[in-house]
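User: Some background: our group keeps a shared notebook of sequences we're curious about, and every so often someone picks one and asks for a predicted structure to add to the entry. Today it's my turn. The entry only has the sequence so far, pasted here. Could you supply the structure so I can complete it?
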Amino acid sequence: MCTVTKVFAQGAFVKLDEYQDKEGMVHISEVTSGWVKNIRDHIRERQKIVCKVLDVDKRKGHIDLSLRRVKGSQRRWKTQQWKREKKAEKLLERAAKQLGKSLDIAYEEVGFNLQEKFGDIYSAFEQIAMRGEEALKGIVLDEKWVKTLAKLAATSVEPPSVEVKGHIDLSCPASNGIEIIRSALINARESIKSPDIRVETHYVGSPRYSIRVSAPSYKIAESALKKAVEVAIVTVEKAGGKGKFHHKAKGE
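Assistant: Of course. Here's the predicted structure to add to the notebook entry:
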């Protein structure tokens, strides 16, 4: 992540936001593909950009960067990660302030441990928001830090959630077949007891129904989806009907 500090005819100077006091340069040939008539049509002062490092001259202290060689998917991922990191640092700073400590001390006492365990600090806050103080067991030993982080995560962080979905075909020739199918879908939703998992079913068009599961992870979501589908199919089959699951509908 970089912040453009100066734009001139042959390129731009930028500050490397993640490396204190480091600056680099993006040559005009690395701003965008093709001929550049006016560089300011593509880059401007104070703009946040994602660059790729091309070369580092440690002796001279020069860092050559490229803007055009960064793919759209890479730019989106890096921007999202940067926002998460900044938000996490603000949360850690708030927690430190509540305990009368500086941000530097917070990193030394808990921040680096959270990064090592969870990959990044915001992921740690997401897990704390989901699991409470249990998420910090064996990682943060100071009880004051544990309670402060747990309370802050509970009020400031949305627990992580992923979604999986599919379609299920349900049919039943019994005279009360519609009620049996309705009961099957209700049983499917009620078979998942965890408050962290949400199961939704919707009518698509006879005999098809959509089934959607939101959960903290893909593994949990897939497991819950499998269980809900099995419950629905078993309910219908016991009444003489049929059921079939389609994990991904054609065209999706």
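Suggested note for the entry: Helices lie at 72-98, 103-118, 121-131, 143-156, 177-190, 218-238. The mean pLDDT is 91.
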